[in-house]
Amino acid sequence: MAATEPVAIIGWSVSPMERRTDKTEAQLLLDVITDATAHAGISRADVDFTCAGSCDYVAGQAFSFVQNINAIGAWPPKRDSHVEMDGAWALYEAWVRLQLGDLDVALATGSGRSSTADPATIYPMEMDPYYLAPLGADAVSMAALQARVLLDAGLVTERQMATIAARTRRDAVANPHAQVSGEFDVDALLAGEYVRDPLRRHDLPPITDGACAVVLARGEKARELTDRPVWITGFAHVAEAHQPGVRDLRVSTSAARAAKAAGVAEGGPIDVAELQSAFTHEEPVLTAALGLGPEVAINPSGGPLAANPIMATGLVRIAEAARQIRDAGKRRALAHATSGPCLQQNLVCVLEEGR
Amino acid sequence: MSKNPCAIIGIGQTQHKSRRWDVSLGGLVREAASRALEDARLTWADVDAVVLGKAPDLFEGVMKPELYLTDALGAAGKPMFRVHTAGSVGGTTGIVAAHLVETGIHRTVLAVAYQKQSEGNAQFALGSGKGASLGAGGAFAPYMRSYIHRTGAPLDVGPMVAVKDRQNALKNPYAHLKLADISLEKVKASQMMWDPIRYLESCPSSDGACAVVLTDEAGGLAAAADGRPPAWVLASAVRSEPSSFPGRDAVWSAGAADCAADVYRQAGITRPREQIDCAELYVPFSWYEPMWLEAHHIVGHGEGWKLTERGDTALGGAFPVNMSGGVLSTNPIGASGLLRFAEAALQVRGMAGEHQVDGARVALAQAYGASAQYFSMWLVGSSPDPFA
Amino acid sequence: MTTYVESTVRFPYKRSLGPVIGQFMTGLTEARLLGIRADDRVIVPPVEWDPETGEQLAHEFVEVGPAGTVRSWCWVEKPTTQHPLDRPFAFALIELDGASTGFLHAVDAGRREAMTTGMRVVPRWRTERRGHITDVEAFVPGDQPLPVERAEPAGEPVTMMTYDAEVHYLTPVTENETRVGQAAAEGRFLGLRCPRCARLYVGGKNDCPICAVALTPQDEVDLPQRGTITNYVIITPVQYPGQTETEPFARVHVLLDGVDVVLMFQPVVDLANDDVRPGVRVSAVWTPPDGTGRRALAGWRPTGEPDVDDPALVNRIH
Ligand SMILES: [Zn+2]
């Protein structure tokens, strides 16, 4: 659905991305909210609505998000919400809320300390509780099954996957938040051992602790607060069937639907895309589904292969896409977030330069 | 830009029980959702988006269950959204769904909330698996002691609420607890769990789900023309405040007051006690009935228990509260908020059956969560403009 | 140096299966693999609703397999404790003969080189089957069904399963939490005064929730060790895995002398549950030094002073 009331991103902050931070989620959020509001030229008191994205099982505690509201300064009491989803969906709720027209400024966050537990023991818990979770069906294995389907179908090669890894790591050099970056030789990468055949280490994201905050403002308020608003001109998300075994893993029908609903193909070419392709082979699946041609720069930040703070990775994509417009002179950007096994659920956010 | 009207045209809930061992997790949410669609005379294909609410994933040991439940809720090819705002989540689920309609982003939205407490253990989950979990009653008992002290409420008021809500539940075919022989004496004789909260003044642990179909003005008018009255969302609001800081008053809390004031302002309500016909308030422990009547300024501070004591909050009273039997009779935690919101809608649609408040035109629903610090409320009416 | 606290969240969840999953699990006890018909497809494992349209499926079960074809696979070199095998194996999507979908399970192929897409596999059944997805221990390469003692049709249909979730967590102890612990080891109570609003918090807190600013060691103050009980709760413990309490226990709120700080849900020492009430004067009790000389707060013990006669104390919960 294309936006009916113009809403713009006016500020953001991405925390340092680390293998293991000594900060709690609330502390990470305290910092990124302070920085994002400063970036937007406002204070916490100016925020009319907040929405957070985080996950109890990542934190290892029921109601873990309750402590995180200390970071937003909810006094006097605030209009506030929380999604047990990536912060990109928190931003979606904030975007919806602003379109009611009675509030002007909203804040969305995503936070996750992936290091708190072994993701291989957490992720099976999001799978079908009868058939898949009891097998310990972990995210890396599910991704590897999709990669094999693509390889067997000739839709991608291991060399292409290594090339994607090398490119994102090279691009990540310029990203102060990147956890994995540098110059890597494709042949050397391909000489590496499989971690989960057909996936090698470079096909996988790192384990990352981090958080992100993004500030939204509506219409005139956005123009008043900044002369360079980054407008959200399309925003949609779509799910598909849960079990990988019932889906055609060569394609992402839900990403394609989300792109259509967000109007990606209308309104001019996409210059740059930040995709939550946490595994190398997901990039060609997504670019095909989203209709992104070779002319579109993909993940100039390095993407999730450079830093992958679960529950914030998707929101970071939106912040990085906004950065591409505001700081790198791009006109139209696409940000993507995903959740679930083999790209089960996909979100697309289209951003455009100020007009 | 002003909000588009939003109509509730379908409501469904499961048979609530302590153990719904006849269904899977998917089967539980499906039962409520199918009934809501049937009530709305819609098919799965008519639903544009699904909003799913539930409290902590540790209750059932399924992380981000919106992924697995996509199939059960017919959400393949559609947006599937998951909210979690502690105990208030059921309310938030309804509100986020309403926003999707009010903004014109979607035409028809299915809101579903559930909890299947029998899969796990609530005290375990509330304590995140650590020892000496206070449980919900342990966390709230001090607030009630403070309330009783500051208002001088007679000690029978809590037990009176416990009796009244259980009697209402006898009229609700979906309610979990059916205590036909409930009496003041029985409540007072039941074990003191967390002084001043007795066993029979506490909510049960339930398996259950609730679903609500929300649609736009055209959909609401079409239902009305078909002889199926919709409920119109007149106002909605949420508020959160920190768990603890020096001097925080969690009895008449600022968040509760602000949330209510927001709803009253949106709906043009200046005398809530007179202008609202009935209310479904989140009362998991008996004393929360008078506490919420006051904290949400339905009546003045110190006046809430008087309503209860006079019998005003009973089904035939001047201001009925928890006609459904409330959380005290049915508590699938994540669904409990949406059950309140749905019951308010049932009342103004005139479809509440034996627990119908005669002539209810405007109904209030509320849910709260965590350390009484998350609030969600909505106000629904039998017409979009009941005060015109 | 940052320290971490280890914890394990473990719970044996008890799941009811409903009519379709229950039928499949019952089939497993009989060493039979069932799918469900959905138009011209057969979905395995069977699901209750059409994954594409959401429509309810008729309960038309079809026996499939036991042999099947690997449609995709990956090699798990280092299994986790949650995986079905404790040695290297493959996860595979297996299209069982007669099925239209991929069934996820393990293939015990011994070595990676033995795996190919399109290979034929058959299930290796457990001898004792309980109606659980792991009744198939794993699939193994081959086209001919392995001999299996086919149980008689189950007397009772399988309706329930358990799921033992276990996750180990490593949570950082923040600097403030470490310092309050260190102070406690010396028998001292630390507080933190917000540099912006001057509200005083009990030590170990990381931020002022009113101002949303970090609290740091520079904000530390020593807190008094005497106070008054303002409010309380007696908890009747419910037993659950991980529960440490068996008898009703008290938790009290203590307003410290001379400062605006309430300690919430504190344990008590030498105070019977029946004697817990607002107004009781208490002081902190520390455990004797342990082997490393460290103390810890044991709880709050009555000082013997007369009760504080202030009925409004009960309102100080926070
Ligand atoms: Zn402060």
UniProtKB/TrEMBL annotation, chain A:
Domain of life: Bacteria
One annotated GO molecular function: acyltransferase activity, transferring groups other than amino-acyl groups
PANTHER family documented for this protein: ACETYL-COA C-ACETYLTRANSFERASE, NON-SPECIFIC LIPID-TRANSFER PROTEIN-LIKE 2
Protein name: Lipid-transfer protein
From TrEMBL, chain B:
SUPFAM superfamilies: Thiolase-like (SSF53901)
Pfam family name, one: Thiolase_C_1
Positions of the Thiolase C-terminal domain: 249-373
InterPro entries on file: Thiolase, Thiolase-like, Thiolase_C_2
One MF term in the entry's GO annotations: acyltransferase activity, transferring groups other than amino-acyl groups
NCBIfam families in alphabetical order: PRK08313.1
Protein name, per record: Thiolase domain-containing protein
Organism: Frankia nepalensis
UniProtKB/TrEMBL annotation, chain C:
Domain of life where this protein originates: Bacteria
Signal peptide stretch: none
InterPro entries for this protein: ChsH2_C (IPR002878), NA-bd_OB-fold (IPR012340), Thioester_dehydratase-like (IPR052513)
Residues annotated as domain ChsH2 C-terminal OB-fold: 62-126, 220-286
Stored SUPFAM superfamilies: Nucleic acid-binding proteins
A Pfam family matched in the record: OB_ChsH2_C
PANTHER family: BLR3430 PROTEIN (PTHR34075)
Stated name of the protein: OB-fold domain-containing protein
